[in-house]
Amino acid sequence: MTTTELAPDTGRLQRFVAAWWLALRITRLNLRARLEYRTEFILTVVTGLVWQASILVFASVLLVRFPGLGGWTSPQVLLIASMRMTSHALFILIFGRVLWITGLVQLGSIEAFLLRPLPVYRQVQLSMFSVNAIGDLLVAGTLTVMAVARFDLPWTPARVALLLAGLTGGVLVEAAVHTAISAFGLHFGGTVYWSTWTEELMATFGNYPLNILPKVAQAALTYLLPIAFLAYLPASLVTGQTHGRAVPALVVALIPVVGLVAFVASRLFWNVSLRRFQGVSG
Amino acid sequence: MSHVRQVSDRRTRPWAPLLVARVTPLGEVLAGGRVATKAARLAVGIFLSVALWRALYATTTTEAGLDREQAVTYAVLATVLVATRVSATWINGDTVLQRMQQGTIIFWFLRPMSARRYYFVRGVGELGYAQVWLLVALLVCVPSGVVLAPDPGSVPAFVVSLVLGHAIFYELGLVLDLLCFWTVVNMSAVQIVFFVQTLLSGGFAPLWFFPGWFRTLSLLLPFQGTLNVPVSIYVGRLPTSQIAGSLLVQLGWVVALCLFNRWLWERASRRVTVQGG
Amino acid sequence: MTRLGPGDPIVTASHLTKVFHTTTRRPGRWGALTSLVAPRRVSKTAVNDVSFSVGRGELVALLGPNGAGKSTTIKMLTGILQPTSGSVTVAGIDPHRNRERNARNIGAIFGQRTQLWWDLPARESLAILRDIFEIDPSDYRRRLGELDELLDLSAFWDSRVRHLSLGQRVRCDLAASLLHDPGIVFLDEPTIGMDVVVKEQVREFLRHQVQERGRTVLLTTHDMTEVARLAERVVLVNHGQLVVDGTLDDIKRRFGGSWQVRVTLAEPGPEVEVEGLRVVRRDGPVVTFGPDGTDPDRPDPNGTVRLEEGLRRIVERHRITGVAIEEDDLEDVMRQAYLHRDAGTVP
User: A251 and A226 in contact (C-beta within 8 Å)?
Assistant: First the structure.
C-alpha cells in the first residue's frame, strides 16, 4: 500500500506521479553519493567493462573470422550479444538491487524498510545506485551500435519496434527470475549462491543462439531457466530466424507480454514471501 | 618450574613446513559443497565451450592454423586452467593486501619460516591442486572424445611447458601481491589485472585468432607463457622447431620474474621493519 | 648468543629508541607538486630511551595511553621493528637479527588480529602451525589436549575461524601462540572487546601459564582490572618515555592525588572552607571534600594535598561526627598518570 504525505483528497494519478518523482530524486542522491568517490567510481565502471570481457573478445575477434553460428550469420549473433548486454544493463539499473537481498537482510535494512510508508520492493531498489550498470551500459551501447551498423537485414520501423519489444521482454524476464529467487533470499542466507549461479549461467549462455546446444540442454535453458528468453528468442523476433527454435512462434511474438506476466507473478510471490518475513536473529 | 629452551639448531621435522602447501586447497576441500560447485561450474563451462566451438567450425575446416578438434581442445584446456588457477587465498585472508589491511602481516615476523618460503610452498600447493583438476578434466574429456588426446611425442614438452607456465603464473601473482606494499591496490585493480592476464594468455580465445599486432604484443609479455604455449604444444599448433625456443622464453621469464620478486621482497621487508606493521 | 644464568633477566630492553620518518605534504596550492620534488620530512620519536628488563617467570604489564609507544615497544621486543638505537635481547638473542630462532622462543598475541587462516577450521589452522614450527606430533597432541582442557577448544575447533565469536577466536589464538611451548609470551591488548566471562577465563589461563608453567609474560592492556589482578609489576610509558617501573602501589603513590572524603559535620555552618581542599558536594551536614587540584606539575610531591594531610586539616577546622574515605579508583589514578606531562624518571 502506498501512502504519501499528500493531502487525502489528491487523486490516484497525482500520487502515482509523486511516487515516481520521489524515486527519481532518491536515485539522483544515491548517484551523487557514489560520485563523491571519484576514483572508485571510475574503477568500478572499468571493472564492469572487464566483466564483459569474454563476450567482447568473442564479438570482436571470433565473429569476425567465422561465418556464423548455428545458422545465424555473424552480424545476427552480434545482435543477440548486444541485446543481452543492453537488457542486462537495464535490468541492473532498474532492478539490480534485488541481487543484494541477502546483504540487506543481514544489515537489518528490511526491518527498517517495513517501517516506512513505501513498498519494500521499491525501497530495496532505491537503497543504492549500482555503478556497475554504467559500465555495463557503456559496453552494451557500443556493442549495440556496432551490431546495428553491421546488421545484414534492413532496419524497417517494424523491425525497430520488434527490437524494442525484445529488449523489454528480456529485461522483464531477467527481473522476474531474480525477483523470484530473492523472495527466497528474504528467508535463507544461502540463496546468494543460487542467485550467483543463475547470474553466471545467464552470462555464460545468454549471448549465443541456443540452437547450437543439444536439444535437451536447449529445452532446459528455455523452460527450466528461461535464458532463451533473455536475448536469443527476442533476437529471433528481430531476425525472423526460426531454425532450431524450440518455442512456438506465437509465444515468441508476445515476448514482452510473457515478460510482463512473469514479472508480475514474481512480484506477487515476493509480496507473499515478505509477509512471512522473520528478520535476522540477534 | 621455569624453563626456556635455549635455541638449539636441532631441527626435529625439517620437512614439516613443506606440508604447509595444503593451506589453500584444504579450505576448499573441507567445505564439501564447494568442490561440487566448482565441478559443476567447470562442467557447464566445458559444455558451452565445446558447443560453441563446434558450431563456429560448422562450415569451416581450418582457421588460424587450428582445425575443429584442436580449437575445441584448446578452449576446454583454457577454460579449466583459467577457472582452477584463480587464487583462493583471498578467502583465507592470506594475501599480502589483506594482511596489510588487517595488520596480520606482523605474524610473519614471529614465525620460524620466512614469508617468502611460505608463499612459495603455498603456491606450489595451489598450483598442484589446479593440476589435479586439469588431470581429472582430461581423464573425463579425452576418452569421451570431447577433447583430443595429446600426441605422445609432445607430452614431455607439454609437461615441462605447463610447469613453467604455472611458475610464471605464480611469479606474476606475487608481483601484484607485493606491490600492495607501495601502492594502494584494491579489488577493482586486481580484477582488471586478472582480465588483462587472462586475455593475453589466451584464456578467452586462442591467441592464434587475434590480429597480428595483438599476437606480437603478447609475445613480448609473459602472460602468453602461462597458457598459450603449453596448450598450443598439446594441440600440436606449435611446430616442433619452435617448441624449444618457446620453452626457453618461458624459462627466461621465470628467472627474470623470480629475481624481480626477490628484490621486491627485500624492499618490502625493509619497509615493514622501518615503518611498522 | 649469550648464555643465560638462572637469575638473569630473560628480556632486556636497553636504551630503546625508535624514530619514524615520514613525509608530509607541504601546505598551500602548490604543496602537492612541491612535495613530489622536495618532500618535507617529519620525524616522530615514538619511543625515547626506554630501558627495562623482565625476569624469568614474571608477569609484567606495559601500560600507557594510546600513542604512548607501547605497541612500538612491543614490536621492537618481538623483532618486528628495528630500533633506531639501543638494543633488545630476548632469551639471549637479538630478536630482529635472529628472527627465525627468536620465533621459536616466543609466542605473541595481538588483540584485534588473528594469526589463523579464516577459511580453515580452527583445528586445521593449529595443525598448520604445528608443521611450521616442526613440533613433534606426540608433543603436539599432548599440548593441544592441555590447551583444550584449559580453554575448552574442542567445543568449536571444527568451525571455520571466520565463523567464530571474538572470545572463541582469541582462545584459539592463545592456543596457537603456545603450541611450540615458548618460554616468553607477548600479548598486545588480548582481551579487548570481550565480555567479562571470557576475560576472566583468559586471565585465569595467563595466570596458570605463569604460575604452573613458569612462562614469562609481557602484556599491554587498557583494562585496569586486568592489571590489578594479574600484574605484579607494571611498566608505564608515556610520550615514548618510561615513567614508572615498579608495582601498582608505586603508581598509586605517585599519581594517586585524587581522593575524596565524606564528612558529617557536627555543626552545619554556612562557611565550610579548608585550605588546599575544595568542596565536591554538599548535602546539608554531609560535605564531600577533595584536593583543590593545585598544579600537579609542581615537582614538589606535596603539591597536591594528600589524604592524610587533608583529613588532618578538616578535623582541625571542623568538628565531625562521621567520616568516609573513598579510595582512589584505579582508572582515575591511571588517568592522572596518563595526563601527567612531567618528563618523569623511574622513582
Answer: no
Q: Which of A223-232, A248-257, C124-133 has the weakest average pLDDT?
A: A248-257
pLDDT bin (cut points 50, 70, 90) of residue B103 is confident
Task: List, as ranges, residues 240-279 from A with C-beta within 8 Å of B.
Answer: none
> What is d(CA C210, CA C194) in angstroms, rounded to the nearest whole number?
22
Q: Do chains A and B touch (3 or more CB pairs under 8 A)?
A: yes
Which residues on chain C are in Cβ contact (under 8 Å) with B88?
119
Please tell me which residue, C327 or B146, carries the higher pLDDT value.
B146
In chain C, the domains with their CATH numbers are: 53-253 (3.40.50.300), 257-327 (3.30.70)
Question: What domain range includes position A200?
Answer: 13-275
Q: How far is A80 from chain B (nearest CA, A)?
A: 14
Do chain C and chain A touch with ≥3 beta carbon pairs under 8 Å? no
> What's the mean pLDDT when you consider all of chain C?
83
Q: Within a domain: residue A195?
A: yes
Task: State the nearest Cα–Cα gap between A191 and chain B, in angstroms.
Answer: 14
**Looking at the 3D structure of chain B, how many domains does it have?**
1
**Separation in Å, CA of C219 to nearest CA in chain B:** 16
Helix (H, G, I), strand (E, B) or coil at C77: helix
Cα(B207)–Cα(B227) distance, integer angstroms: 10
Q: Into how many domains does chain A fold?
A: 1
* pTM, full prediction: 0.79
Centre a 10 Å sphere on the Cβ of residue C221 and count the other Cβ atoms it contains: 21
Q: Is residue B65 one of the residues assigned to a domain? A: yes
Neighbouring chains of C at 3+ CB pairs under 8 Å are B
Residue B2 falls inside a structural domain: no
Report whether pLDDT(C343) > 50. no
Residue A282 lies in a domain: no
Query: Which strand ranges, in their side-by-side order, compose the sheet holding C286-291?
Result: C277-283, C286-291, C260-265, C320-326
Mutate to test the interface with B, among A51, A66, A197, A211 (most CBs of B within 10 A): A66
Of all residues in chain C, what percent carry a pLDDT higher than 70? 86
Amino acid C66: pLDDT: 82
